[in-house]
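User: Please write out a complete single-protein record containing the residue sequence and its fold in token form, without commentary.

AI:
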Amino acid sequence: MPSVAAKPEEGLRARKRRETMERITQAGIRLFLERGYEATTLDDIAAAAAISRRTFFHYFKSKDDILISLQSGMGTMIADAIRKAPPGTQPIHAVRDAVIEVCAAVPPDDMLAIDRLMRSSQTVQARKQASYVEQERVLLAALRERWPQSGRKPALQLVAMIAMGAIRLSTEAFNREVGARSMPTLLREAFDMLDAELRSQA
């Protein structure tokens, strides 16, 4: 399952908070898979994570947030990869490489299981769709840090929107095909189709 890597400058308090959050997340995902999303209660998750119900609310507002946090975490990792793009890389290629790199790090079975969990709840599915807007904002912020030249914001925003569109289309195909093709493969195809369309002549 995706997790947030520790930072070198991370303090003891921040590390403990991160570790507790990851423990709650892992416990929640395991129970969702074993019992079903709707059948799993907050008390179940708290007990499995060895925390109190009150402590749970210090980290998440609801069990929905556990699943949504996984998607948000992916967005943050993609943004970090964009910031590390080699000199001379075009923004659209930086986004493509970052998305593929992050998705390749997640085992296909885990990705399929998480996607199915999100689809099992209408509330979570609605929040997932809404979260794409926030992820787009996160990617745009990373792109503007990497390419801060004045006047580039509209084009970079379009790149961020295209990236999220590619992720959404690839996720739909991944679920429809039950993981027959990997997410990196589907993402490469999506970006290749975009390149081909841009180069085609009317």
Remarks:
- The first helix runs from residue 12 to 35.
